[in-house]
Amino acid sequence: MKKYLQVLKITFQQELAYRLNFIMWRVRNVMQVFLMFFLWDSVFSDSSRQFFGYNRSKMLTYIFGILIIKAIVFSSRTIELSGIISDGTLAQYLLKPINFFKYWFTADIASKILNLSFSFVETILLFLIFKPEIYFQSNPIYLLLFFISLLIAVLLFFAIVFLINMVSFWTPEAGWALPFLFIVIIGDFLSGSVFPLDIFSKSYQNIFYSLPFPYLVFFPLQIYLGKLSISVVINGMFISLGWLIILWFSMKYVWQRGLKKFSSEGI
Amino acid sequence: MKKKIKKYFKVWWLLSRNSFMSMLSNRFGSVLFLLGKLIRFFAYIFFIVALLKGTNSLAGYNLNQIIFFYLTFNLIDVTSQFLFREVYRFRVQIVEGTFDLVLSKPINALFRSLLGGADILDFITIPFLMIALFYVSRELNPEFFSILLYILLIINSLVISAAFHIFVLSLGIITLEVDHTVLIYRDLSNLGKFPIDIYKEPLKGFLTFIIPVGTMITFPAKALMGLVSVKTVLISFLIGGLFMFLSIKFWNYALTKYSSASS
User: Please, are residues B43 and B193 in contact by the beta-carbon 8 Å criterion?
Assistant: First the structure.
Protein backbone atom coordinates (compact mmCIF):
# COMPACT_ATOMS: atom_id res chain seq x y z
CA MET A 1 0.00 0.00 0.00
CA LYS A 2 2.88 2.33 0.94
CA LYS A 3 4.53 2.04 -2.46
CA TYR A 4 1.27 2.89 -4.25
CA LEU A 5 0.95 5.99 -2.09
CA GLN A 6 4.40 6.95 -3.39
CA VAL A 7 3.15 6.38 -6.97
CA LEU A 8 0.24 8.67 -6.17
CA LYS A 9 2.61 11.38 -4.88
CA ILE A 10 5.00 11.04 -7.82
CA THR A 11 2.13 11.28 -10.33
CA PHE A 12 0.90 14.47 -8.64
CA GLN A 13 4.40 15.92 -8.95
CA GLN A 14 4.65 14.84 -12.58
CA GLU A 15 1.31 16.40 -13.48
CA LEU A 16 2.23 19.65 -11.72
CA ALA A 17 5.74 19.74 -13.20
CA TYR A 18 4.20 20.86 -16.49
CA ARG A 19 1.76 23.37 -15.01
CA LEU A 20 1.21 25.34 -18.21
CA ASN A 21 0.36 22.13 -20.08
CA PHE A 22 -2.09 21.12 -17.38
CA ILE A 23 -3.75 24.55 -17.26
CA MET A 24 -4.05 24.65 -21.07
CA TRP A 25 -5.64 21.18 -20.96
CA ARG A 26 -8.23 22.41 -18.46
CA VAL A 27 -8.89 25.53 -20.55
CA ARG A 28 -9.64 23.24 -23.49
CA ASN A 29 -12.13 21.26 -21.40
CA VAL A 30 -13.96 24.45 -20.47
CA MET A 31 -14.00 25.62 -24.11
CA GLN A 32 -15.69 22.39 -25.13
CA VAL A 33 -18.43 22.98 -22.55
CA PHE A 34 -18.92 26.54 -23.87
CA LEU A 35 -20.13 25.39 -27.30
CA MET A 36 -22.65 22.93 -25.91
CA PHE A 37 -23.83 25.27 -23.18
CA PHE A 38 -24.66 28.08 -25.60
CA LEU A 39 -26.12 25.69 -28.15
CA TRP A 40 -28.61 24.27 -25.65
CA ASP A 41 -29.15 27.66 -24.07
CA SER A 42 -30.28 28.83 -27.51
CA VAL A 43 -32.53 25.77 -27.98
CA PHE A 44 -34.15 26.39 -24.58
CA SER A 45 -34.47 30.15 -25.05
CA ASP A 46 -38.12 29.61 -24.14
CA SER A 47 -37.56 28.01 -20.71
CA SER A 48 -41.05 26.50 -20.51
CA ARG A 49 -40.42 24.18 -23.49
CA GLN A 50 -39.21 20.58 -23.34
CA PHE A 51 -37.09 18.79 -25.94
CA PHE A 52 -36.11 15.10 -26.00
CA GLY A 53 -37.50 14.69 -22.47
CA TYR A 54 -35.30 17.45 -21.04
CA ASN A 55 -36.36 20.77 -19.62
CA ARG A 56 -33.92 23.67 -19.53
CA SER A 57 -32.50 22.95 -16.06
CA LYS A 58 -31.95 19.23 -16.73
CA MET A 59 -30.19 19.90 -20.04
CA LEU A 60 -27.89 22.55 -18.58
CA THR A 61 -27.16 20.21 -15.64
CA TYR A 62 -26.24 17.54 -18.21
CA ILE A 63 -23.77 19.95 -19.91
CA PHE A 64 -22.19 21.00 -16.59
CA GLY A 65 -22.21 17.38 -15.44
CA ILE A 66 -20.09 16.42 -18.46
CA LEU A 67 -17.27 18.65 -17.18
CA ILE A 68 -17.19 16.90 -13.78
CA ILE A 69 -17.86 13.34 -14.93
CA LYS A 70 -15.24 13.58 -17.67
CA ALA A 71 -12.72 14.74 -15.05
CA ILE A 72 -13.52 11.66 -12.95
CA VAL A 73 -13.81 9.05 -15.69
CA PHE A 74 -11.64 10.26 -18.60
CA SER A 75 -8.64 11.63 -16.66
CA SER A 76 -6.02 8.99 -17.18
CA ARG A 77 -2.31 8.35 -17.29
CA THR A 78 -2.84 4.88 -18.77
CA ILE A 79 -3.10 6.54 -22.20
CA GLU A 80 0.72 6.74 -22.04
CA LEU A 81 0.93 2.93 -22.11
CA SER A 82 1.05 2.75 -25.90
CA GLY A 83 4.17 4.96 -26.03
CA ILE A 84 5.85 2.99 -23.24
CA ILE A 85 5.36 -0.27 -25.12
CA SER A 86 6.47 1.25 -28.45
CA ASP A 87 9.70 2.79 -27.21
CA GLY A 88 10.60 -0.20 -25.04
CA THR A 89 10.60 1.57 -21.66
CA LEU A 90 8.03 -0.99 -20.53
CA ALA A 91 11.06 -3.15 -19.64
CA GLN A 92 11.95 -0.73 -16.84
CA TYR A 93 8.47 -1.07 -15.32
CA LEU A 94 8.56 -4.86 -15.55
CA LEU A 95 11.76 -4.95 -13.48
CA LYS A 96 10.19 -2.98 -10.63
CA PRO A 97 8.68 -4.89 -7.67
CA ILE A 98 5.26 -3.48 -8.33
CA ASN A 99 2.00 -4.73 -9.83
CA PHE A 100 1.79 -3.13 -13.28
CA PHE A 101 -2.03 -2.82 -13.29
CA LYS A 102 -2.14 -1.34 -9.79
CA TYR A 103 0.66 1.07 -10.70
CA TRP A 104 -1.30 2.54 -13.63
CA PHE A 105 -4.60 2.52 -11.78
CA THR A 106 -2.97 4.50 -8.93
CA ALA A 107 -1.47 6.95 -11.44
CA ASP A 108 -4.97 7.32 -12.95
CA ILE A 109 -6.44 8.09 -9.52
CA ALA A 110 -3.86 10.88 -9.00
CA SER A 111 -4.77 12.36 -12.37
CA LYS A 112 -8.48 12.09 -11.54
CA ILE A 113 -8.10 13.82 -8.17
CA LEU A 114 -6.18 16.69 -9.75
CA ASN A 115 -8.57 17.09 -12.69
CA LEU A 116 -11.63 16.79 -10.45
CA SER A 117 -10.36 19.56 -8.14
CA PHE A 118 -9.86 21.85 -11.13
CA SER A 119 -13.20 20.92 -12.68
CA PHE A 120 -14.96 21.86 -9.42
CA VAL A 121 -13.38 25.31 -9.48
CA GLU A 122 -14.22 25.70 -13.19
CA THR A 123 -17.82 24.62 -12.62
CA ILE A 124 -18.24 27.12 -9.79
CA LEU A 125 -16.74 29.90 -11.94
CA LEU A 126 -18.95 29.01 -14.92
CA PHE A 127 -21.92 28.79 -12.59
CA LEU A 128 -21.21 32.29 -11.27
CA ILE A 129 -20.78 33.68 -14.79
CA PHE A 130 -23.78 32.06 -16.53
CA LYS A 131 -26.05 31.50 -13.52
CA PRO A 132 -27.73 28.48 -15.16
CA GLU A 133 -30.71 26.71 -13.65
CA ILE A 134 -29.25 23.51 -12.20
CA TYR A 135 -31.14 20.36 -11.25
CA PHE A 136 -30.20 18.92 -7.85
CA GLN A 137 -30.99 15.25 -7.25
CA SER A 138 -32.29 14.77 -3.73
CA ASN A 139 -33.40 11.11 -3.86
CA PRO A 140 -30.73 9.13 -1.85
CA ILE A 141 -31.36 5.93 -3.83
CA TYR A 142 -30.65 7.69 -7.14
CA LEU A 143 -27.58 9.35 -5.62
CA LEU A 144 -26.28 5.97 -4.39
CA LEU A 145 -26.90 4.37 -7.81
CA PHE A 146 -25.21 7.37 -9.44
CA PHE A 147 -22.03 6.88 -7.38
CA ILE A 148 -22.02 3.12 -8.07
CA SER A 149 -22.39 3.79 -11.82
CA LEU A 150 -19.47 6.25 -11.60
CA LEU A 151 -17.28 3.61 -9.97
CA ILE A 152 -18.15 1.12 -12.73
CA ALA A 153 -17.43 3.85 -15.33
CA VAL A 154 -13.95 4.48 -13.89
CA LEU A 155 -13.09 0.75 -13.99
CA LEU A 156 -14.60 0.35 -17.47
CA PHE A 157 -12.58 3.25 -18.85
CA PHE A 158 -9.38 1.88 -17.31
CA ALA A 159 -9.99 -1.52 -18.94
CA ILE A 160 -10.87 0.01 -22.34
CA VAL A 161 -7.81 2.30 -22.38
CA PHE A 162 -5.47 -0.46 -21.19
CA LEU A 163 -6.80 -2.93 -23.73
CA ILE A 164 -6.66 -0.57 -26.71
CA ASN A 165 -3.20 0.74 -25.86
CA MET A 166 -1.85 -2.81 -25.86
CA VAL A 167 -2.24 -2.85 -29.65
CA SER A 168 1.30 -1.37 -29.59
CA PHE A 169 2.65 -4.84 -28.80
CA TRP A 170 1.73 -5.81 -32.38
CA THR A 171 1.89 -2.48 -34.27
CA PRO A 172 4.33 -0.25 -32.36
CA GLU A 173 4.55 2.38 -35.14
CA ALA A 174 0.79 2.92 -35.25
CA GLY A 175 0.09 2.40 -31.57
CA TRP A 176 -1.28 5.95 -31.22
CA ALA A 177 -3.89 5.56 -33.97
CA LEU A 178 -6.23 2.98 -32.43
CA PRO A 179 -6.45 4.78 -29.05
CA PHE A 180 -7.13 8.01 -30.98
CA LEU A 181 -9.94 6.37 -32.92
CA PHE A 182 -11.57 4.51 -30.02
CA ILE A 183 -11.03 6.88 -27.12
CA VAL A 184 -10.92 10.36 -28.65
CA ILE A 185 -13.49 9.89 -31.38
CA ILE A 186 -15.82 6.93 -30.81
CA GLY A 187 -15.60 7.06 -27.01
CA ASP A 188 -16.29 10.78 -26.92
CA PHE A 189 -19.43 10.58 -29.03
CA LEU A 190 -20.82 7.25 -27.88
CA SER A 191 -20.25 8.06 -24.21
CA GLY A 192 -22.58 11.03 -24.52
CA SER A 193 -19.88 13.56 -23.64
CA VAL A 194 -20.54 15.64 -26.74
CA PHE A 195 -24.35 15.47 -26.71
CA PRO A 196 -26.97 13.37 -24.88
CA LEU A 197 -27.64 10.12 -26.68
CA ASP A 198 -31.39 10.18 -26.11
CA ILE A 199 -31.88 12.80 -28.82
CA PHE A 200 -31.63 9.84 -31.20
CA SER A 201 -34.48 7.44 -31.95
CA LYS A 202 -35.15 4.43 -29.70
CA SER A 203 -33.60 1.94 -32.15
CA TYR A 204 -30.28 3.84 -32.16
CA GLN A 205 -30.39 4.13 -28.38
CA ASN A 206 -30.81 0.35 -28.06
CA ILE A 207 -27.64 -0.12 -30.12
CA PHE A 208 -25.75 2.43 -28.00
CA TYR A 209 -26.86 0.80 -24.74
CA SER A 210 -25.55 -2.58 -25.87
CA LEU A 211 -22.01 -1.08 -26.12
CA PRO A 212 -19.77 -0.22 -23.14
CA PHE A 213 -19.34 3.50 -24.03
CA PRO A 214 -22.66 5.03 -22.79
CA TYR A 215 -21.91 3.67 -19.31
CA LEU A 216 -18.94 6.04 -19.07
CA VAL A 217 -20.81 9.38 -19.02
CA PHE A 218 -24.35 9.20 -20.37
CA PHE A 219 -25.70 6.49 -18.06
CA PRO A 220 -24.40 8.01 -14.78
CA LEU A 221 -25.80 11.40 -15.80
CA GLN A 222 -29.18 9.88 -16.68
CA ILE A 223 -29.29 8.33 -13.21
CA TYR A 224 -28.39 11.64 -11.57
CA LEU A 225 -31.10 13.44 -13.52
CA GLY A 226 -33.62 10.78 -12.47
CA LYS A 227 -34.58 10.12 -16.08
CA LEU A 228 -34.50 6.33 -15.72
CA SER A 229 -36.70 4.09 -13.62
CA ILE A 230 -34.98 1.94 -10.96
CA SER A 231 -35.56 -1.24 -13.01
CA VAL A 232 -33.93 0.33 -16.10
CA VAL A 233 -31.00 1.49 -13.93
CA ILE A 234 -30.52 -2.03 -12.49
CA ASN A 235 -30.70 -3.50 -15.99
CA GLY A 236 -28.08 -0.98 -17.20
CA MET A 237 -25.86 -1.79 -14.25
CA PHE A 238 -25.93 -5.49 -15.13
CA ILE A 239 -24.98 -4.74 -18.75
CA SER A 240 -22.12 -2.45 -17.68
CA LEU A 241 -20.90 -4.99 -15.13
CA GLY A 242 -21.06 -7.65 -17.86
CA TRP A 243 -18.88 -5.45 -20.07
CA LEU A 244 -16.51 -4.80 -17.18
CA ILE A 245 -16.00 -8.54 -16.60
CA ILE A 246 -15.47 -9.21 -20.33
CA LEU A 247 -13.04 -6.30 -20.75
CA TRP A 248 -11.17 -7.07 -17.51
CA PHE A 249 -10.50 -10.69 -18.49
CA SER A 250 -9.65 -9.63 -22.05
CA MET A 251 -7.19 -7.09 -20.65
CA LYS A 252 -5.40 -9.76 -18.58
CA TYR A 253 -5.40 -12.21 -21.48
CA VAL A 254 -4.08 -9.69 -24.05
CA TRP A 255 -1.45 -8.53 -21.55
CA GLN A 256 -0.07 -12.09 -21.23
CA ARG A 257 -0.07 -12.52 -25.02
CA GLY A 258 1.49 -9.10 -25.51
CA LEU A 259 4.33 -9.76 -23.09
CA LYS A 260 5.32 -12.80 -25.12
CA LYS A 261 5.53 -10.55 -28.18
CA PHE A 262 7.36 -7.71 -26.42
CA SER A 263 11.01 -6.96 -27.03
CA SER A 264 13.04 -3.91 -26.07
CA GLU A 265 16.40 -3.02 -27.52
CA GLY A 266 19.02 -0.69 -26.07
CA ILE A 267 17.10 0.18 -22.92
CA MET B 1 8.31 38.22 -58.63
CA LYS B 2 6.93 35.53 -60.95
CA LYS B 3 10.21 33.64 -60.65
CA LYS B 4 10.05 33.87 -56.85
CA ILE B 5 6.48 32.53 -56.72
CA LYS B 6 7.52 29.68 -59.03
CA LYS B 7 10.47 28.86 -56.74
CA TYR B 8 8.32 28.86 -53.60
CA PHE B 9 5.66 26.74 -55.25
CA LYS B 10 8.32 24.22 -56.24
CA VAL B 11 9.63 24.12 -52.66
CA TRP B 12 6.09 23.72 -51.31
CA TRP B 13 5.45 20.89 -53.75
CA LEU B 14 8.65 19.09 -52.72
CA LEU B 15 7.92 19.46 -49.00
CA SER B 16 4.33 18.30 -49.46
CA ARG B 17 5.51 15.29 -51.46
CA ASN B 18 7.92 14.38 -48.64
CA SER B 19 5.10 14.73 -46.14
CA PHE B 20 2.95 12.42 -48.29
CA MET B 21 5.75 9.83 -48.48
CA SER B 22 6.14 9.93 -44.71
CA MET B 23 2.40 9.37 -44.33
CA LEU B 24 2.57 6.37 -46.69
CA SER B 25 5.18 4.76 -44.43
CA ASN B 26 2.48 4.50 -41.77
CA ARG B 27 -0.57 3.49 -43.77
CA PHE B 28 -2.42 1.70 -40.98
CA GLY B 29 -2.21 4.70 -38.65
CA SER B 30 -3.16 7.11 -41.44
CA VAL B 31 -6.25 5.11 -42.41
CA LEU B 32 -7.42 5.00 -38.78
CA PHE B 33 -6.76 8.74 -38.43
CA LEU B 34 -8.82 9.48 -41.55
CA LEU B 35 -11.54 7.14 -40.35
CA GLY B 36 -11.64 9.00 -37.03
CA LYS B 37 -12.08 12.33 -38.80
CA LEU B 38 -14.91 10.93 -40.92
CA ILE B 39 -16.68 9.45 -37.89
CA ARG B 40 -16.47 12.79 -36.09
CA PHE B 41 -17.83 14.62 -39.14
CA PHE B 42 -20.81 12.30 -39.61
CA ALA B 43 -21.52 12.08 -35.87
CA TYR B 44 -22.06 15.85 -35.85
CA ILE B 45 -24.25 15.65 -38.97
CA PHE B 46 -26.40 13.01 -37.21
CA PHE B 47 -26.54 15.24 -34.15
CA ILE B 48 -27.61 18.32 -36.14
CA VAL B 49 -30.31 16.37 -37.99
CA ALA B 50 -31.63 14.81 -34.76
CA LEU B 51 -31.54 18.17 -32.97
CA LEU B 52 -33.29 20.14 -35.71
CA LYS B 53 -35.88 17.38 -36.16
CA GLY B 54 -36.88 18.01 -32.57
CA THR B 55 -36.60 21.80 -32.49
CA ASN B 56 -37.35 22.76 -36.16
CA SER B 57 -34.99 25.74 -35.97
CA LEU B 58 -31.89 26.96 -34.13
CA ALA B 59 -31.37 30.70 -33.53
CA GLY B 60 -33.82 31.29 -36.39
CA TYR B 61 -32.04 29.03 -38.93
CA ASN B 62 -33.54 25.89 -40.48
CA LEU B 63 -31.87 22.48 -40.90
CA ASN B 64 -30.35 23.23 -44.34
CA GLN B 65 -28.87 26.49 -43.15
CA ILE B 66 -27.38 24.93 -39.98
CA ILE B 67 -25.84 22.11 -42.06
CA PHE B 68 -24.43 24.75 -44.43
CA PHE B 69 -22.82 26.56 -41.47
CA TYR B 70 -21.34 23.28 -40.30
CA LEU B 71 -20.01 22.36 -43.76
CA THR B 72 -18.47 25.84 -44.16
CA PHE B 73 -16.79 25.42 -40.77
CA ASN B 74 -15.38 22.09 -41.93
CA LEU B 75 -14.15 23.48 -45.25
CA ILE B 76 -12.17 26.24 -43.49
CA ASP B 77 -10.97 23.94 -40.71
CA VAL B 78 -9.85 21.13 -43.02
CA THR B 79 -8.22 23.48 -45.56
CA SER B 80 -6.33 25.21 -42.74
CA GLN B 81 -5.10 21.88 -41.42
CA PHE B 82 -4.13 20.78 -44.92
CA LEU B 83 -2.09 23.96 -45.49
CA PHE B 84 -0.70 24.66 -42.02
CA ARG B 85 0.00 21.17 -40.65
CA GLU B 86 3.70 22.02 -40.22
CA VAL B 87 2.76 24.30 -37.31
CA TYR B 88 1.91 21.17 -35.29
CA ARG B 89 5.53 19.98 -35.73
CA PHE B 90 7.14 23.32 -34.90
CA ARG B 91 7.76 22.83 -31.17
CA VAL B 92 10.31 20.05 -31.73
CA GLN B 93 12.37 22.37 -33.96
CA ILE B 94 12.43 25.07 -31.30
CA VAL B 95 13.15 22.75 -28.37
CA GLU B 96 15.87 20.78 -30.19
CA GLY B 97 17.35 23.83 -31.87
CA THR B 98 16.86 22.50 -35.42
CA PHE B 99 15.06 25.75 -36.25
CA ASP B 100 18.63 27.06 -36.82
CA LEU B 101 18.72 24.95 -39.99
CA VAL B 102 15.51 26.59 -41.23
CA LEU B 103 16.86 30.08 -40.53
CA SER B 104 20.12 29.41 -42.32
CA LYS B 105 18.46 28.25 -45.56
CA PRO B 106 17.87 30.69 -48.46
CA ILE B 107 14.12 30.48 -48.01
CA ASN B 108 11.68 32.46 -45.91
CA ALA B 109 11.59 30.89 -42.41
CA LEU B 110 7.93 31.76 -41.93
CA PHE B 111 7.00 30.09 -45.21
CA ARG B 112 8.90 26.95 -44.19
CA SER B 113 7.39 26.85 -40.68
CA LEU B 114 3.84 27.61 -41.77
CA LEU B 115 3.44 25.82 -45.09
CA GLY B 116 6.29 23.31 -45.12
CA GLY B 117 4.36 20.04 -45.00
CA ALA B 118 0.82 19.91 -46.35
CA ASP B 119 -1.34 17.14 -44.94
CA ILE B 120 -2.67 14.89 -47.67
CA LEU B 121 -5.15 13.23 -45.27
CA ASP B 122 -6.99 16.53 -44.97
CA PHE B 123 -6.71 17.22 -48.68
CA ILE B 124 -8.57 13.97 -49.50
CA THR B 125 -11.70 15.21 -47.74
CA ILE B 126 -11.83 18.68 -49.37
CA PRO B 127 -13.45 17.62 -52.71
CA PHE B 128 -16.18 15.71 -50.82
CA LEU B 129 -16.84 18.74 -48.64
CA MET B 130 -17.13 20.93 -51.72
CA ILE B 131 -19.63 18.56 -53.33
CA ALA B 132 -21.67 18.54 -50.10
CA LEU B 133 -21.52 22.36 -49.94
CA PHE B 134 -22.66 22.62 -53.55
CA TYR B 135 -25.54 20.22 -52.93
CA VAL B 136 -26.75 21.93 -49.73
CA SER B 137 -26.29 25.47 -51.10
CA ARG B 138 -28.60 24.67 -54.06
CA GLU B 139 -31.46 24.40 -51.57
CA LEU B 140 -30.63 27.92 -50.34
CA ASN B 141 -31.09 29.45 -53.85
CA PRO B 142 -28.15 31.88 -53.70
CA GLU B 143 -27.66 34.70 -56.22
CA PHE B 144 -24.45 34.96 -58.27
CA PHE B 145 -23.21 37.95 -56.22
CA SER B 146 -23.76 36.01 -52.95
CA ILE B 147 -21.70 33.09 -54.27
CA LEU B 148 -18.90 35.47 -55.24
CA LEU B 149 -18.96 37.06 -51.78
CA TYR B 150 -18.93 33.61 -50.19
CA ILE B 151 -15.78 32.63 -52.10
CA LEU B 152 -14.03 35.93 -51.28
CA LEU B 153 -14.95 35.65 -47.59
CA ILE B 154 -13.69 32.05 -47.48
CA ILE B 155 -10.34 33.30 -48.81
CA ASN B 156 -10.44 36.00 -46.13
CA SER B 157 -11.11 33.27 -43.52
CA LEU B 158 -8.03 31.39 -44.64
CA VAL B 159 -6.02 34.61 -44.28
CA ILE B 160 -7.29 34.97 -40.68
CA SER B 161 -6.55 31.31 -40.03
CA ALA B 162 -3.00 31.78 -41.40
CA ALA B 163 -2.60 34.81 -39.10
CA PHE B 164 -3.69 32.71 -36.10
CA HIS B 165 -1.18 30.02 -37.00
CA ILE B 166 1.57 32.67 -37.31
CA PHE B 167 0.63 33.91 -33.82
CA VAL B 168 0.95 30.34 -32.54
CA LEU B 169 4.38 29.93 -34.17
CA SER B 170 5.56 33.24 -32.72
CA LEU B 171 4.32 32.35 -29.24
CA GLY B 172 6.09 29.01 -29.66
CA ILE B 173 9.41 30.77 -30.20
CA ILE B 174 8.92 32.93 -27.10
CA THR B 175 7.33 30.39 -24.71
CA LEU B 176 8.26 26.98 -26.25
CA GLU B 177 4.55 26.09 -26.02
CA VAL B 178 2.87 25.22 -29.33
CA ASP B 179 0.79 22.07 -28.94
CA HIS B 180 -1.82 23.37 -26.52
CA THR B 181 -1.93 26.86 -28.05
CA VAL B 182 -2.79 25.46 -31.46
CA LEU B 183 -5.39 23.15 -29.91
CA ILE B 184 -6.93 26.09 -28.04
CA TYR B 185 -7.16 27.88 -31.39
CA ARG B 186 -8.91 24.75 -32.74
CA ASP B 187 -11.32 24.75 -29.78
CA LEU B 188 -12.06 28.43 -30.33
CA SER B 189 -12.70 27.89 -34.02
CA ASN B 190 -14.95 24.95 -33.04
CA LEU B 191 -17.27 27.57 -31.54
CA GLY B 192 -18.02 28.39 -35.18
CA LYS B 193 -19.54 24.97 -35.87
CA PHE B 194 -22.86 26.70 -35.30
CA PRO B 195 -23.74 30.30 -36.24
CA ILE B 196 -22.41 32.78 -33.68
CA ASP B 197 -25.99 34.05 -33.27
CA ILE B 198 -26.40 31.35 -30.61
CA TYR B 199 -23.94 33.18 -28.33
CA LYS B 200 -24.86 36.07 -26.07
CA GLU B 201 -23.03 39.37 -25.66
CA PRO B 202 -20.21 39.99 -24.74
CA LEU B 203 -19.08 36.57 -26.04
CA LYS B 204 -20.69 37.23 -29.42
CA GLY B 205 -18.76 40.50 -29.85
CA PHE B 206 -15.59 38.76 -28.66
CA LEU B 207 -16.05 36.04 -31.27
CA THR B 208 -16.66 38.62 -34.00
CA PHE B 209 -13.85 41.09 -33.44
CA ILE B 210 -11.25 39.82 -30.93
CA ILE B 211 -11.06 36.13 -31.86
CA PRO B 212 -12.92 36.51 -35.15
CA VAL B 213 -14.47 33.04 -35.36
CA GLY B 214 -17.68 34.70 -36.54
CA THR B 215 -15.85 36.59 -39.27
CA MET B 216 -14.09 33.39 -40.30
CA ILE B 217 -17.04 31.01 -40.42
CA THR B 218 -20.44 32.56 -39.80
CA PHE B 219 -20.09 35.58 -42.13
CA PRO B 220 -19.15 33.65 -45.31
CA ALA B 221 -22.10 31.30 -44.81
CA LYS B 222 -24.43 34.21 -44.07
CA ALA B 223 -23.15 36.01 -47.20
CA LEU B 224 -24.26 33.08 -49.34
CA MET B 225 -27.69 33.26 -47.73
CA GLY B 226 -27.80 36.99 -48.52
CA LEU B 227 -27.89 37.86 -44.80
CA VAL B 228 -24.90 40.23 -44.48
CA SER B 229 -24.59 43.93 -45.24
CA VAL B 230 -21.84 45.54 -47.34
CA LYS B 231 -20.53 47.12 -44.12
CA THR B 232 -20.11 43.66 -42.50
CA VAL B 233 -18.24 42.40 -45.56
CA LEU B 234 -15.89 45.39 -45.52
CA ILE B 235 -15.27 44.94 -41.76
CA SER B 236 -14.47 41.26 -42.40
CA PHE B 237 -11.78 42.12 -44.93
CA LEU B 238 -10.43 44.80 -42.62
CA ILE B 239 -10.19 42.29 -39.77
CA GLY B 240 -8.45 39.82 -42.10
CA GLY B 241 -5.89 42.41 -43.21
CA LEU B 242 -5.31 43.68 -39.68
CA PHE B 243 -4.82 40.19 -38.25
CA MET B 244 -2.32 39.27 -40.95
CA PHE B 245 -0.40 42.54 -40.46
CA LEU B 246 -0.24 42.10 -36.67
CA SER B 247 0.74 38.44 -36.90
CA ILE B 248 3.69 39.20 -39.21
CA LYS B 249 4.80 42.01 -36.90
CA PHE B 250 4.62 39.58 -33.97
CA TRP B 251 6.57 36.93 -35.90
CA ASN B 252 9.35 39.43 -36.64
CA TYR B 253 9.40 40.39 -32.96
CA ALA B 254 9.47 36.72 -31.86
CA LEU B 255 12.44 36.02 -34.13
CA THR B 256 14.47 38.62 -32.23
CA LYS B 257 13.74 36.62 -29.03
CA TYR B 258 14.86 33.29 -30.47
CA SER B 259 17.79 31.78 -28.63
CA SER B 260 19.08 28.77 -30.40
CA ALA B 261 18.97 25.68 -28.17
CA SER B 262 21.73 23.04 -28.19
CA SER B 263 23.98 24.94 -30.57
Answer: no
pTM beyond 0.90, yes or no: no
Rounded (5°) CA angle A21-A23-A28: 95
Q: Is A205 in CB contact (< 8 Å) with chain B?
A: no
| Cis peptide upstream of residue B142 (ω within 30 degrees of 0) | no
- Nearest Cα residue to B28 out of A190, A180, A250: A180
Give the whole-angstrom CA distance, residue B33 versus residue A173: 13
Contact B36/A185, CB-based, under 8 Å?
yes
Give yes or no for residue A143 having a pLDDT over 90. Answer: yes
Contact status of B187 with chain A (Cβ, < 8 Å): yes
Q: Which of A189, A193, A203 to mutate to test the interface with B (most CBs of B within 10 A)?
A: A189
Q: Is B35 close to A184, i.e. CB distance below 8 A? A: no
Residues in CB range of A267: below 8 A, 6 or more apart: A88, A89, A91, A92
> Across residues A9-31, what is the average pLDDT?
80
Nearest to B47 among A41, A43, A195 (CB): A195
Per-residue pLDDT reduced to its tens digit, B212-227: 888 888 999 999 998 9
Domain definitions of chain A by residue range: 2-261
